[in-house]
Amino acid sequence: MTRPLTLHPDRLFPSDAGQRDIARRLYADVADLPIVSPHGHTDPAWFATNANFGNAAELLLHPDHYVFRMLYSQGVSLDALGIRNRAADPRESWRLFAQNYHLFRGTPTRMWMDWVFAEAFGIDVQFEAATADLYYDRITEALATDAFRPRALFDRFRIEVIATTESPIDTLEHHQVVKDANAGGEWGGRVITAYRPDPVVDPEFEAFRENLGRLSDLSGEDAFSYAGYLAAHRNRRAFFAEMGATSTDHGHPTAATADLSDAEAEALFARVTGADVSPADAELFRAHMLTVMAGMSLDDGLVMQIHPGSFRNHNLWLFDRYGRDKGADIPTATDYVHALRPLLARYGNEARLTIILFTLDETSYARELAPLAGHYPALKLGPAWWFHDSPEGMRRFRSHVTETAGFYNTVGFNDDTRAFLSIPARHDVARRIDCGFLAQLVAEHRLEEWEAAELAVDLSYNLAKAAYRL
Amino acid sequence: MTRPLTLHPDRLFPSDAGQRDIARRLYADVADLPIVSPHGHTDPAWFATNANFGNAAELLLHPDHYVFRMLYSQGVSLDALGIRNRAADPRESWRLFAQNYHLFRGTPTRMWMDWVFAEAFGIDVQFEAATADLYYDRITEALATDAFRPRALFDRFRIEVIATTESPIDTLEHHQVVKDANAGGEWGGRVITAYRPDPVVDPEFEAFRENLGRLSDLSGEDAFSYAGYLAAHRNRRAFFAEMGATSTDHGHPTAATADLSDAEAEALFARVTGADVSPADAELFRAHMLTVMAGMSLDDGLVMQIHPGSFRNHNLWLFDRYGRDKGADIPTATDYVHALRPLLARYGNEARLTIILFTLDETSYARELAPLAGHYPALKLGPAWWFHDSPEGMRRFRSHVTETAGFYNTVGFNDDTRAFLSIPARHDVARRIDCGFLAQLVAEHRLEEWEAAELAVDLSYNLAKAAYRL
Amino acid sequence: MTRPLTLHPDRLFPSDAGQRDIARRLYADVADLPIVSPHGHTDPAWFATNANFGNAAELLLHPDHYVFRMLYSQGVSLDALGIRNRAADPRESWRLFAQNYHLFRGTPTRMWMDWVFAEAFGIDVQFEAATADLYYDRITEALATDAFRPRALFDRFRIEVIATTESPIDTLEHHQVVKDANAGGEWGGRVITAYRPDPVVDPEFEAFRENLGRLSDLSGEDAFSYAGYLAAHRNRRAFFAEMGATSTDHGHPTAATADLSDAEAEALFARVTGADVSPADAELFRAHMLTVMAGMSLDDGLVMQIHPGSFRNHNLWLFDRYGRDKGADIPTATDYVHALRPLLARYGNEARLTIILFTLDETSYARELAPLAGHYPALKLGPAWWFHDSPEGMRRFRSHVTETAGFYNTVGFNDDTRAFLSIPARHDVARRIDCGFLAQLVAEHRLEEWEAAELAVDLSYNLAKAAYRL
Questions:
Q1: Which terminus of chain C, N or C, has fewer Cβ atoms within 10 Å?
Q2: What is the model's pLDDT at position C334?
Q3: ipTM exceeding 0.90?
């Protein structure tokens, strides 16, 4: 006996009748706005080649660490789930997922997945052990059709623009293909890149020196001298901008910044490109480079994003066997007030510069980030991120940030995902939560409804376009 | 003129009508479930001797540091309250409590106490100066009756199993008496112990060396050599398991763990068992022993609990005069991400191992604990603890933890109390708050009601039994 | 086309109908209670000279860093707003404010301002670009009338007592004028001072040594010897008390305290009054002086306030051009548990002493401050402060603090403002939020309504009077 799967039209709205009525009205005006996705991790090859996706497990289970980390936490083997294990039968892996779907109760994954099942694939029974095969077949069959090719889904999802994330040593060949398709009238989808220099900025990154060699080759500069290294960045940033990039992104362990003299920087660069880099030197170099990158942003207009505070690859055993991005990155307490001061002393008062700050440490919302963004012209706040990209997480973001930073020092929603099919669901969750938050302000007479209606459109659409210069 | 004392049937449910209706339905199915109390501090002598409790002050005021810490904070003298002062007239102490009962407005103590007064003792007027003597007499008289002996209350409270907490140098003689009573058909109540080795693991514990001597005597091992010390732990753990223990408990100042080589550990052990232990050595030894204990748990199956982050005996003047556990332990900011890594590197991927983490630092819920428990197979999250074992505290726990760790990486409720009569009240508060939280998810269409009904039973009963292997 | 400006009678109450009805009843009894303002930054010269305020920009824009920091964060120039720029046309500055008033949506500034516009000035259209001149003229004209002189507003606002904040080297001449006016029957308003010794306690304060010179002159003691320095404090504290002060206030970077021997203190004093003060010595001296000040409070009965955790003048460029208090002070993570221990070891158990703790780090509410205040007789908790003096901030304060510290270890509301006209609005927000919080407790049957009614009066009026000995 299966149970029906339906998405309630009032989902995620406050259940208080007064607030809910307001939320419904606000949402009605933003539900169908185009999606602006200024930060994410979709694969540009999808849109370049427009090849069909494979089976259900390959699309929805294997790449989604939100899904398999939860299963793993409850003792399900990653091998059995097919993670880095081509020997696993995808249907069997899928069944494991189905049998354990109750683990996701109360999580955003459950909401995103149900949306994908119901809206993207039109399935009308709930996902559980008994329906695992039905799901597997329905999804896998659909994926073989033209309607489920990447470009068709992009159009169907009403994506106005999507940014992927690439490192300076990426050739952006897929973006070139899309650009050509745009120019040739073959397809109108706007797929841009973002400049994420961690692999050539972080001396502790795997293969840092090899990456600098590749950077030299691509830029035609000698990236092993400090001057050449800076020139190489400028060169690649310009190339990325040509390929549509409007932003850079920096995923550092901490928010530390530094502003070294040229002589100090040159000496440090020599040390971190040599053998045996000390952790302190690595941290100082990352810190200095954030300030350098802010300066380049002031020159070339790329919006700067800082994503600090993740302890990457916490589980070494897992990292050795399964690699990066397997759900074992853990947030840490993050200081911004002292850490950002060197950068802000240099560039914080520049109104032409936009630096978007993210956090995995919610304690910084009201204590540090809102006061900083509510003062410095160069700073804005990115949305609730990663683990906090969820109904309760988004509510905490708004309730902790708004009173000091207002709405206009925030930048709309980022889906930040490689789970392409869930993108509309994620934006929909954000719109519903924002409408609910606004509805509460209206119901408590802290805001008028016409203002909330304006804000709903701003939060869903305008702010992202403006902040990211899209 | 006295005021009536009544417990409202809807207490602690959300006041929103839609949510409240759902909460009522969920609660109706869990209200009368047996109590599983896997972690607490009741005195096993109560259940062994089954002697009557004394007077109202002796039972409800003197042992409850939640009560007298609040009175003390407002200038009431501990001597006058009879704390470590046998000269105080218990009736006079009780009157002081009554006169100041308004101080507890808005606190969980007020709710637990009112439940004890109304439900356990059947009193129907409110507690205040004017009713102090009536209360004192009614309670003291009741306590002299058979119906208020410990075993009768245990049965009346529908306790299925209760765990006390003892150190390795405890002889567990009271548990033996209860075990005999169970075996002989005299009484069916299940009272088990838990292995709390702090007095022989923490070199800074009062009388640490004397405790090791006692440990040697009880185990027949030489606890002053590292090998003998480990053997003594194994010996006592086995004995505790025989006496029903299914868990260990570790109350450290921080969550620091370490994984030393045998040679390092042996050298450290020599230092911490010598004179003049340095704070750094003490911390390192505690840290190392957490990893050692996790290894032993993998062998003997005892579930491991870690309770870090309390600054014990913050008030030295009070400690000197009144001793431990007088309400002067204060939570501190606690890191888990770096601190637990050595232990997790060794054992975190063991699905057969269960380590239950607690915190007094709520900022770690969403930032550190939920991400860790939502990834590592060995980790689960204990409930809101101590100061946070309260309606708002429990709500924060659920709303901060669930979206990343789900419900199934949590372990149900712990009452953690020595206030025996309040145990049903505490479990009832937890069940009501959980039903309210689930009702909100249902009312916001984030969960279906049949799922919430399953979860309500899991959170009230099944998860504690499963996690603690009861 | 202008829009009407109205203040909804139910503003800030919960929108749940049941809670709202209770909140309305609770609020009805406290809405018109006199204002007790025990901590703030109004200028005593206003009440001494009773001169008319100038124009709208001068009164409502230039001194309010809540207002211009938000405008600045969005790229509006401080020069154009007239901050430290007498060349700016105040009407033009005011228009800039009006054009950008939407930036304040969702902030407390918006609510305070709307109250000032509607209630203080009787304006009935909303503030926006189109009404900027109407506003400027209406406000500026009103300010020229007798009804808008400081004393008339003080009386109209039903202020029972207001405390300003002065340093030991202030002569308090304005307070003397008010005192004389009181004595002579000219005006009855009670305007007292508070002793804020930071400029002569913090060796890193601008002009610290010059300040000590001035302190010597005013006290007749040699403030460059440690004994004379302490005597000078005693002398000035006595003078402040004569001028009505009932409290001291200490705005330190951290909550660090120390309790040095006389010899240590004397040696430290010699170092910090010499050239080249080290940051560590400066911190230690501030720390020691908190304990010294607590000792003096025990002698002279002045209530002690500690306001730690603000990183002052974070934006050096701005500080150089525009000076202190321009919206660039940023909160930092603040430890209390270790920091306060030296002071508490000496004086924490003194029930005759009142130390009121504030925080800008909300994570300390439930983790540190409520447990400390819920234990130590000398400690009480100040209200949500500065950035957290807002609807959501106040709700977090109550929900995080009450369950451990109760209501009676808190001290009512502080407006802490130099924005005189907003004082009634700020107290009104606090009363409404507190009534809403109490209404939730009543609606969830955690408190009876008669208790909530008592508490509403206590939180709005009685607690501030009692805690500050007013």
A1: N
A2: 98
A3: yes
- Straight-line distance from the first to the last Cα atom of chain C, in angstroms, rounded to the nearest whole number: 49
**Which of C316, C330, C363 shows the shortest C-beta gap to A363?**
C363
**Parent domain of A67:** 52-147
Q: Which helix (H) or strand (E) holds C41?
A: none
Determine the Cα–Cα distance for residues A153 and A147; give it in Å rounded to an integer: 7
How far is residue B151 CA from its own chain's centroid?
20
- Residue C261 in contact with partner chain A when CB distance is under 8 A: no
> What residues in A contact B379, CB-CB < 8 Å?
73
- Residues B362, B257 within the same domain: yes
Q: Which residues of chain B have pLDDT under 70?
A: none
Cross-chain residue pair C337–B108, CB shorter than 8 Å: no
Do C218 and C287 lie in one domain? The reply is yes
Q: A194 and A118 in one domain?
A: no
CATH number at residue A91: 1.10.2020.10
Same structural domain, B231 and B206:
yes
pLDDT digits (tens, 9 = 90+) for C131-148: 999 999 999 999 999 999
CA distances (Å), origin B354, targets A318, B351, B465, C200, C448: 18, 7, 13, 56, 43
pLDDT at residue A1 greater than cutoff 90: no
Per-residue pLDDT averaged across A406-430, rounded? 97
Contact A444 C108 (CB under 8 A): no
Q: What gap in Å lies between CA B464 and CA B369, rounded to an integer?
A: 18
CATH number of the domain residue B438 falls in: 3.20.20.140
Distance (Å) of CA B276 to CA B280, B288, C346: 12, 19, 27
* Residue A211 within any structural domain of the chain: yes
Q: Do B34 and B138 lie in a common domain? A: no
CA distance C84 to B365: 45
How many Cβ atoms from other residues are within 10 Å of residue B468's Cβ? Answer: 25
> What tens digit of pLDDT does each residue of B386-419 get?
999 999 999 999 999 999 999 999 999 999 999 9
Specify the pLDDT at position B203.
97
Q: Is residue C10 part of a domain?
A: no
Q: What chain B residue is nearest to C379 in terms of C-alpha separation?
A: B73
Give CA–CA dist C410/C359, Å, rounded. 13
B356, β-bridge pairs: B305, B380
Same domain, C335 and C299: yes
Residue-wise pLDDT for C29-49, tens only, equals 999 999 999 999 999 999 999
Residue at a domain's end among B104, B127, B148: B148
C358 vs A403: CA distance, rounded Å: 19
Query: Strand B247-250 to strand B330-331: parallel, antiparallel, or no bridges (unpaired)?
Result: unpaired
Q: Which residues of B touch A70 (CB under 8 A)?
A: 374, 406
B21's tokens: 């209706």
With an 8 Å Cβ cutoff, is C446 touching chain B? yes
Q: Does A69 touch chain B (CB under 8 A)?
A: yes
pLDDT tens digits along A219-278? 999 999 999 999 999 999 999 999 999 999 999 999 999 999 999 999 999 999 998 999
Per-residue pLDDT tens for B60-84?
999 999 999 999 999 999 999 999 9
My answer on whether C431 and C450 are in the same domain is: yes
SS3 A159: strand
A265 and A322 housed in the same domain: yes
pLDDT attached to residue C332: 97
Contact A264, A202 (CB under 8 A): no
* Domain final residue pick, B118, B148, B178: B148
C315 domain-assigned: yes
* Interface with chain C: mutation pick from A22, A367, A409, A437, highest number of C CBs within 10 Å: A367
Number of domains in chain C: 2
Q: Is residue C9 part of a domain?
A: no
User: Which residue from A373, B466, B169 is spatially nearest to C70, judged by alpha carbons?
Assistant: A373
pLDDT at A350 over 80: yes
Using 50 as the pLDDT threshold, list the residues of chain C that sit under it: none
